[in-house]
Amino acid sequence: MNKSRQHLLLRWLRQQRQYGATGLRIASLCGFAAAITVIAQAWLMASLLQDLIVSQQPRATLIADFLLLLLCFVVRAGLNYCREMAGFRAAVAIRRALRQQVLDRLDALGPAWIQGKPAGSWSTLLSEQIEQMQEYYARYLPQMTLAVAIPCAILIAIFPVNWAAGLILLVAAPLIPLFMALTGMGAADANRRNFLALSRLSGDFYDRLRGRETLRLFYRAAAGEKAVAVSTDTFRRRTMEVLRLAFLSSAVLEFFASLAIAVVAVYFGFSYLGEFDFGHYHTGVTLFAGFLALILAPEFFQPLRDLGTFYHAKAQAVGGADALERFLHTTPDASPQNMAPDWHNSEPLTLTAKNLVVVSPDGTPLTQPLNFTLAANSRVALVGQSGAGKTVLMNTLLGFMHYQGSLQINGKELRAVSRESWHQQLAWVGQNPRLPALTLRENLMQGQHIDESRLQKVLQQAGVTAFLSDLPLGLETPLGDEGIGLSVGQAQRIAVARALLKPARLLLLDEPGSGLDSRSEQHVMQALNQAAREQTTLMITHQLHDLAHWDEIWVMQNGLLVQQGSWQQLINQPGALQQMVHLRYQESDLCNL
């Protein structure tokens, strides 16, 4: 990572302080107040030693000083606790705000954009990389302020007593951050590479975990284990590289701090022996001055030592911010549809497209100009070979894709309608059912109040009752993460029932029979065919044997609607649909041989 990129990321990280600014200020103030307490504590200790050893004062006369010293210990502990708590809560608030920014951006981009990356990479972005910023905000940022303020306060306390000791500390202080910065640059770069390796490992492991049955079916389980082992070893080596650089920076700090403290001790030792006679403003080197300087010398370097301890947190934060900042600033802006006003219309839906061209986030056309009318309460089947652009068109109708040209709903442009209000008008069933709610009932209801008799009727239509009795708690059965515990066919039936229960005026179906056995597919399609007669419906399908009863067939090739008409019209004229049917019959004959 070059220096300009590092500076950009550090600037971006500092900008996020606004979400926890109050907590960070409190942490810095508590840290500085604790440092003032340390100076007072050192002053009291040096005075007590001077009075007891040199002045030979009775201990009874120093009780007040002892009590003040004890109070300093208590106050210092309390201030350190307050500092830790304030920093922790500030970092939690910042991480929560960052995570919310990512989730808002993902919500704005929609699933059509998100599915281009493995799920594991999003998990890494939302968890590990944001979590790695905790120490940076909780400790490193407040410590940066204290690393300047506390040494200055100690120098102010030491210089009036002995300028030589103050000068030694002043000369040694800049060497520590200089060498820490040199080693820290390498640590930040190593940490960035470590995050990239972690992201690849997380995505690869998660995808292989989800596809373990497929790997086992094709005897690729051993190869998958080997690939995960190689990725894990790569990540281990990169992690050790980061730790090696972190330990190097700590060693550099400890070396210079110990050297400076030793020089201060040598100076006072030779001064007491009469070899040195400078630095004391012509008053002589007193025991008080020596003890004060030697007590405060470690405290002078302690903020820099703490900064060095937390310096790896900066490297981790920079490494994590690389992917996070890139995602937040290089991904396309939120769709204008998210900021459009709500739209309410009770009439049956008619969709009209004129020269509609769907474009990718970077502006690349994904379809040719499309012209069609999806009439109110009509049932249209969209067919075509894989890659023809059917799913792209479906995602556009769902409001997840940018487009050029015109796409109107009852005369209202789709981009001028808020996505939330538009989704209230439609129901959707896709190839991969998503069941995010905790229980089966919550996935079906989606916050609606539905009559129990209607619920049971829909469950019967969708075929859910066929396996409902096998579930331990019926409708209250917890489904786990994304419906884990159900077969694909069972999850698809639940998704169909959920769509039928929603009072929608547009039904969008994307291969609803995909992944089902023939019996389950027949049951699901029967329920959907019945529901399709009650609202405007568009269905993507590869099954051609049951389309004769649909109102209209659209055939798509290379991002263009090449045919539109009824089954009887299209099957009797040369064209794409006729070719697809003949090809399907030929494949069926080959399978029967």
If you had to describe this structure to a student in words, what would you say it looks like?
With 593 residues, this protein is an alpha/beta fold. The protein is built from 22 helices and 10 strands. The strands form 2 sheets. A 6-stranded mixed β-sheet has the order 6-7-8-3-9-10, with helices on both faces. It has a 4-stranded antiparallel β-sheet with strand order 2-1-4-5, with helices on one face. A hairpin with a 2-residue loop joins β9 (552-557) and β10 (560-565). α7 (134-158) crosses α13 and α9 (175-210) packs across α13. The radius of gyration is 35 Å and the shape is elongated. The mean pLDDT is 82.
What's the quick description here?
This protein is of the alpha/beta class and 593 residues long. It is built from 22 helices and 10 strands.
List its salient traits.
alpha/beta, 6-stranded mixed beta sheet, 4-stranded antiparallel beta sheet
